[in-house]
C-alpha cells in the first residue's frame, strides 16, 4: 500500500494525498510500519559503502573505514533521522494554525513520512563510490520531495492551495535550519566522540 501511494502521488498527487488522508495513519503507525525501515536505508548503505566498497571524494584511491568506527556513526545517523523526522513534524504542527490549518500531530507525521521517502530511498546511492552520480541522484530526490511537499500540504493540512504554498515554503525553510543544525552537531561529534578511522 505504501509503494502504491508513492507511485500515486507521482502520477496524480491531489487524489492520492486525499486517499492517504482518509487512511488516518497515526504517528506511531508511521514510525512502526514505515520510518524505522526507511530511515535505516541511508545509514546501512553508507556503512556498507564506507567499510566494504570504499569511497573517494577526489576520484583517487578508495578509502575504507574500520567497522568499529563506522558502526557507531551509522547508528547515530539512524537515530538522528528518526528523531529529525519527529522534530520536523513537531515544527509543522506548531506552525499550522498560522496558515489556517487545524490538523493533528499525526497528520504532520504522515506528511513528513511520505515527503521524506525519496530521500531515504536514494540513500542506497551511498553503496556506490561515485560522488557525481550520488549528488545527481540526491538532487533528483530533493526535487521529488519538494514536489510531494507542495502537493501534499494543501490536502493533508486541509487548507487552500495559496496558503499551502506559503506553508510549504515555511516547512522548507525550517527543514534547512534543522539540516544545518544536524550537520553542525555531526561535525562536533566526528571531531570528538564518533571519530572515523581509516582501515589499513
Extract low-pLDDT stretches: none
The share of residues in extended strands comes to under 5%
- Count of DSSP E strands? 0
Number of domains: 1
Radius of gyration from the alpha-carbon trace, in angstroms? 18 Å
**Secondary-structure class:** mainly alpha
SSE pattern, N- to C-terminal: HHHHHHHH
- Provide the helix percentage: over 70%
What's the number of helices?
Answer: 8
Q: What is the 3D shape?
A: elongated
Provide the residue-averaged pLDDT: 85
- Biggest pleated sheet: none
- Distance linking N and C termini: 45 Å
Oligomer: single chain
Textual characterization of the structure:
- The protein has 200 residues and is mainly α.
- It has one domain.
- 74% of the residues lie in helices and 0% in strands.
- The longest helix is centred in the last third of the chain and has 32 residues, at 161-192.
- It is elongated, with a radius of gyration of 18 Å.
- It starts with a helix and ends in an 8-residue tail after the last helix.
- The model has no long low-confidence stretch (mean pLDDT 85).
Question: What topology emerges from the helices and strands here?
Answer:
Elements: H1 2-11, H2 13-22, H3 27-38, H4 41-53, H5 67-95, H6 105-121, H7 131-156, H8 161-192
Helix pairs in contact: 1-2, 2-7, 3-6, 4-5, 5-6, 5-8, 6-7, 7-8
Amino acid at each position: 500500500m505504501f509503494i502504491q501511494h508513492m507511485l500515486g502521488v507521482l502520477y496524480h498527487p491531489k487524489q492520492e494525498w486525499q486517499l492517504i488522508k482518509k487512511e488516518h495513519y497515526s504517528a506511531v503507525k508511521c514510525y512502526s510500519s514505515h520510518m524505522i525501515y526507511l530511515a535505516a536505508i541511508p545509514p546501512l548503505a553508507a556503512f556498507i559503502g564506507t567499510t566494504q566498497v570504499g569511497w573517494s571524494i577526489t576520484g583517487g584511491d578508495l578509502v575504507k573505514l574500520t567497522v568499529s568506527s563506522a558502526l557507531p556513526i551509522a547508528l547515530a545517523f539512524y537515530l538522528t533521522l528518526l528523531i529529525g523526522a519527529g522534530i520536523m513534524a513537531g515544527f509543522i504542527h506548531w506552525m499550522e494554525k498560522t496558515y489556517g490549518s487545524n490538523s493533528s500531530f499525526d497528520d504532520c507525521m504522515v506528511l513528513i513520512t511520505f515527503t521524506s521517502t525519496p530521500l531515504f530511498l536514494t540513500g542506497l546511492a551511498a553503496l556506490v563510490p561515485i560522488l557525481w552520480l550520488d549528488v545527481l541522484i540526491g538532487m533528483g530526490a530533493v526535487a521529488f520531495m519538494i514536489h510531494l511537499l507542495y502537493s501534499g500540504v494543501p490536502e493533508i493540512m486541509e487548507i487552500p492551495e495559496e496558503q499551502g504554498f506559503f506553508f510549504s515554503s515555511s516547512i522548507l525553510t525550517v527543514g534547512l535550519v534543522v539540516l544545518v543544525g544536524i550537520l553542525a552537531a555531526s561535525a562536533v561529534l566526528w571531531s570528538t566522540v564518533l571519530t572515523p578511522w581509516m582501515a589499513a
